[in-house]
Each structure stands twice: as structure tokens, then as C-alpha cells.
Amino acid sequence: MCLAIPARVTHVTRIDPAIDTAVVDLGGVSREVSIALVPEVEVGDYVLVHVGYALNRISEEEAQETLKLMAEMTRLLDEEMGNADAVAKPA
Amino acid sequence: MTARSRFSARLDLEQGRVDMSHGAGGRAMAQLIDELFKQALDNEWLAQGNDQALFSVPPGRLVMSTDAHVVSPLFFPGGDIGSLAVHGTINDVAMSGARPLHLAASFILEEGFPLADLARIVASLAQAAREAGVAVVTGDTKVVERGKGDGVFITTTGIGVVPEGIAISGDRARPGDVILINGHIGDHGIAILSQRENLGFETVIQSDSAALHGLIADMVAAVPDIHCLRDPTRGGLATTLNELAQQSGVGMRIREADIPVREAVSAACELLGLDPAYVANEGKLVAICPADAAETLLATMRAHPLGAQSAIIGEVVEDPLGFVQMQTRFGGERLLDWLAGEQLPRIC
Amino acid sequence: MKYIDEFRDQRLARQLAAAIAAEVDPARQYRLMEFCGGHTHAIFRYGVQQLMPPNLRFVHGPGCPVCVLPMARLDQAMAMTREHGVTLCTYGDLMRVPASGRQTLLKAKAAGADVRMIYSTQDVLRIARDEPERQVVFMAIGFETTTPPTAVAILQARAEGLKNLSFLCNHVLTPPALRAILSLAGPEGVRLDGILGPSHVSTVIGTRPYAFVPREFGLPVVIAGFEPLDVMQSALMLVRQINDCRREVENQYSRAVGEGGNARALELMARVFVTRPSFEWRGLGFLPESALALAEDYADLDAERRFPVTVEASHEIKGCECPAILRGLKEPTECRLFGTVCTPDNPMGACMVSSEGACAAYWSHRTHMPSSGLNR
Description:
Chain A is an alpha+beta fold.
């Protein structure tokens, strides 16, 4: 039961933590979701949306780190292919 | 138009509702037809007031098609059941290469349906017919009891004439042929769902509902040897491709990256767990033509307002099993299979 | 679309595919179980398997809550509509799953049962509020991703004093299922070299609950994101662990998964649910401590207590190999019914109904993909 989609918080309505909601935007489509599971979200945050709920916040720093790691993992291959010297792999 | 109503009081088009007398065949029904239907549809055939329409047909082979329209909601961004009915049947007729001539429209109304809504639908249907240059020459109205109909059902039937030398049919696709689409897919289905699933859109997604006979006339004039034409309505592009592949006994290879999809439609599909390839369209056609005519056909389509975003999306290949394979945007391969059951919004 | 498009980049995909091809040891097999149904779906949707070298295969695990729901629990829900006339709310995924007698919720609806497909538990609350004369039952299924939304709804129902709403709890837990599958591994059972951990279950439960996998079963785990590049990067990370003889839990999906998971979600779940001593899983039998029920404090909202029904024990349709397929012991093509009487249009078992079930996935690739041949 895993289908969750990242979307940006554009509006937050706070009345009571149990029933607070946010409006999220994905590619021009907006939807209201419950933020009962992530009460601390702010406008501009990205959250995972699952069955009408924000499930967790997405970390921009970690996302960039992951992409950087992907590039590194494959860059080393290029180096190995084009370079006779051994290159240390990351741990 | 009559100078003065034949009836003691005009229809209350603001507050009135359909009731059982409107379908009974008596004065109330005559008034409904006079003041609501004939007012909007206004042409020489309906003005005659017969149960049938008499007309001559130009020489050539005749084509006939019929459709029942049960869309819910009745009104959606970009159209309503009225305009949809006209576009749908004109398109079905035109997909044979025919010039649509006339339409028939029958209405099944639910007791209690607001006359204001009915007037709006009929006006929309009439406008669609006028803009398409195809008259609604005959019709019928029935009323069913409350609870036995979804507001209104419309059935439209259309006839057309196919020019000589044109042989467009679902079984004519051949290995080596090129597959084209005239624009963005998924707009209609998402426009409908956006009403039902409380999805808001920053820029509203409109149904692409449109009559394609003008575009098709240009296409057929430029490339008379078009092999197949079909509109990907229910079940979407994937279903239409599978139908054609099966009818022709061939396979297909499609490139996902070449299929036009609006960002908002993609986004809505992601949120709901839908695949745009299976979402309904009402202003799109799939064309299959010989490879050497593809560039000409593409240019012709792009020159027409309803084909500005046309694209070549794949080829027909040898395949006795009739599979439609798609190279994903990602570089992998997947089967674009028949839809199993209804595409329900997924969470899993 | 941010956080989506970057993780579907074709150029990076080709580079990752090349890296994997370069690093796999041609002398060995890499059998990676993707436990989460969402991963099965992503792999097939993007054609990720074709980008892998021939000696790296994804093995589909039972991480599809629709697939592992025993028929008896579905029979129970349908019996409630029949015997008590309840309004049954369910996620769309369940509508076409066959229960006893080939009955489905969709067919029951056609026959007059009040079955409503919903997208969110918030819809269920709305229906209960708008229709106070109806008794509304929510069929709650799913792993830990989908459990917190049920918990929120239960607490809201209590706070609002809704008398016409109750919950039929079929929520199941991932670590016990994983443990059961891995216990079957070995020469007689499914052979595995690594685990792709679920994306969004882990968002909720964190990475710590997977520590037992390397410790007790000697297998590496990589918590993998949902997008195709996540799956590929995770596969590469597993290949490296396997090659280096490392056995760790690594977190590739760090942008959404923290070590401790979502504390708030876990807290709400702990408030309203308790673990059942035992629960039947389709294909895996009875597993201890593997599923949730409403806590005693919330017994008044438990549909099982409010609407008792009797159903017979589940039994599969003769010839249906869903149980063996769910364990990775057989492939769909080894089931007599596969492709003959059992097709997506006419599913006999849950593996074919769910778009993530192994059978539905294999169906999509029939005759166009070589058999993996790696389940022994």
C-alpha cells in the first residue's frame, strides 16, 4: 500500500491538531490533505501524500545528497573505464 | 418560431422540473418539444413537426453510427452531456473518412430533472451541432420515474457519406505503418474526475471534447490512403491501440516520450494512481498510415487547430499475438495491455 | 514535478544500469526481493528489469496487502453488508478481489449491497456525518503506510462521538511478514541475496525494525525509494554489499525515511491499536504478532464486535497457486490456472487482481520476457 506522491504545501489551515489541513500542489493540481500526521509542516515544505494525508516531510538536503551520490556512483565507473589507475569505491 | 405560444402558459425554464406528463405524448410533451427543443435546434426538418425527417443523400457509400451518453457529472469543464453527444457521434461517423450529414437525438429524462439544466444542455447540443455544420433532424423524448434515470441520458445517431477511394477500417493496419495522435491525451477523463474527486486545478483542465470531421477531411484530402482512424474514448489510447492491433492482426511499438500529455494531467494521474494511457479522450484520434505518407499527414494535422500538437508515437510491427509494446520514457519496455475492468483510482 | 522527475532521469538511469552491469560478478546470481508492492509496480511500469544484467533478478515478495488478505476476512466484510445492511467503505484496490464463491465487492454492489469506494478515511468520516441513519463500516487494510490514516480517523470518530461509524481492522505488519518469508528461504525454498526494503512503510516505522534481517538471516537490506532511479540505486547498493560480503541495513530513501520513522504516526497507532496474537495471511498461514486490532479502549468502534457474523474458513480455488507464488516458491507461469481461466479480467486469486500481484505483473510481460528461473 505504498503509492505516495511528493507535493508542495501551499496553504495551511490550523484549528486543532487532529483536524488541521493543508493544500498541496503537484504540477498545477491542488488537493486538500490532512496534516494530522505531520502537524509541524509549513508553507513551502514538500510532503509525501498518501490516501488524503501528508505522511512525512521530504528533506531537500537529503534529496540533493541522494542525487549527488547517484552521480558519484556512476562517475566512478566512467573514471574506471577511462582510467587505468584504481579508484577507491565509497564505503 | 411561433409569434405567440400555443399553450396557455410558457414553460417555467427557471424553476420548473420534468414531470411524467412531459413524456405522455400529450400537450405537455408538445410544449416541451416546442418551447425547449425546437427553439434551440431550429431547422427545416424539425420545423415540419413530423416523426421522421425526409432528405436526399449525395452519391457515395453511407455510414451510420450510434452512441448512448450517460456521462456523470452532466456538466464539466469544457463541455456537458449535450456537446459531448454531438461531438461523439460526429467523430464516430467521421472516423470512417465520411462527411457527417445529419444527426438524430433521443432523450430519456428523469422525473424531477430541472428544466433549467435541460435547456442548458439542449442549447449546448444545438450550438455544437451548428458549429459542426451538422443538423439534428429528428429526435425523441421519454420520461422515466424518479430514481430510474441519472438525470438525463442522450442517444445520438449519425449518418455520413464516404468519398470514393477512401477505405479506412480497423483491420487495415500493416507492419511498417506509422501511428499518429492529434494532441494531448487524458484531458477529458481528468476533467470529469476532477469534479468527482475534489481535485482542484490551478489552471483548470478542460475536456478536449471536439468535433473532428474538419480535421479528418483535411487529412483524407492530403493522404487518401490512411489505413485506420479511431477515437480513443473510454479506456483511453491504450485500449484503442489494442483494438486496432487485434483487428488487424499486428503488433505495435509505441514511444512513451513521444505521447503528448499535459503536466497537470500527469500530476492528477500521479495523485490518483491512474495511467494517462487509459484515461478517456473526446477530441482525439489515432491515425495509422503508410510510412511514406507520415510526414505529409503530420504536417496536415499540425496545420489544423485541433491537431496543433500532433505527434508520431510509434510503428506497426509484425506480431501474430497482437501485443502493443511501449518503450518507457525511462528507456525500459512495458506492455501496454488491455484495460482489465474499470481503471479505479489506486492507492497501492 | 519536483522530487519525481529528477528520480526518473533517463541519462542517470543509463549510467546506473552501466554501473550495475560493470559491478556484478558474472559468476554469481543476484536475487533481490522487492518486498513492497509499490516497487513491483514501479519496476514493471518503467521496465526496470530490462535494464538489469541477466544475472540480477527482482523477486516479488508478498508486500501487497490486497494479495495477503485471506478470503475469510473479505467474506466477513460482505457478510456484514448482507446480514446487517451496513454501508461498507473500501479503498478501490479491494473492489475486484475474489472472495468465496467468486464473489467480489463490485458484484455485491451490483446486487444491491451498499459498497462505497473511497479515496481517504476522511471520506469515510464525511459519509458517516452526512448519513447518520446509515451504519458505516470502514474496511481498513494495508501495511504501516496506510495504518496511521485509519488511526487518525478512529480518534476523530471518538472525538466527534460518531455513533454510526465502526472500523473493520485488517492492518498487517511488515517485519513479521518479512521474517516469515525469510524463514522459508533456503535450499527448499526461495533463494535470496538481498532485500529492497519498502519505501513508505519505512517512512512510518523507520529503519531500525529491519535490523533483524542481517543479524538473523545474513542478508543485506537497502530501504529503497519509490521512483525507478531509487530502485536502481538501491540495487547497486545491494550489489556492492553482496560483493563486499557486507550485511547491513542501508537507507537509500533518506529524503523521506529517518531512522526513527514518523514518531507522531507511531504514537497515534499505539494509542488505538493492539497487536493480535495471531492472524491468517493468505499464502503464509497464521503468523504470530503480525496484525493489528482495535485496542480495548476503542472496542465500541470495532466493527467485528458491533456486527458479529459467521464465515467459513478460507479455502483457495482448486488449482490456484497464490499461496506458493506469494512465498516466491512458484512462478505464476507454474500455476495451471494462469492465463487459462485466471486472467486480469477474470481473476481467480488476489495475485492476479492487484496490479502489484506477481501474476498481474507477469501477465503484463507474457511471452515477451524470459522466465526468471531463479526461484530454486
